[in-house]
Design a protein that fits this description.
two-stranded antiparallel sheet; 2 strands
């Protein structure tokens, strides 16, 4: 059981790291120097990015994700997701 947990934790860390590398190639122009999220530790990345509330919305047979407008790092998350979407 410990080995399975270690493998799943390693896989999760790799997914977060690779997503960060892909989306960090071109940060959005409005980011300030304190919001350079690609240099955050994985724990900080999870706390700031993955805790943003979102709702899955269906419109015209397509699925969209709407994020909380008041979230501090919402713009960075949306930029990263659009960058991932454009590479796929």
């Amino acid at each position: 059981m410990n080995q399975a947990w270690a493998y799943s934790a390693m896989l999760a860390m790799n997914l977060i790291s690779w997503a960060g590398l892909i989306t960090a190639a071109t940060p959005p122009p409005s980011t300030t120097s304190r919001q350079r999220w690609w240099v955050w530790e994985p724990k900080t990345l999870r706390a700031r990015m993955l805790s943003i509330a979102g709702v899955v919305v269906r419109h015209a047979r397509r699925l969209y994700i709407r994020f909380d407008g008041g979230a501090a790092h919402r713009e960075l998350l949306e930029h990263g997701l659009s960058r991932l979407r454009s590479t796929a």
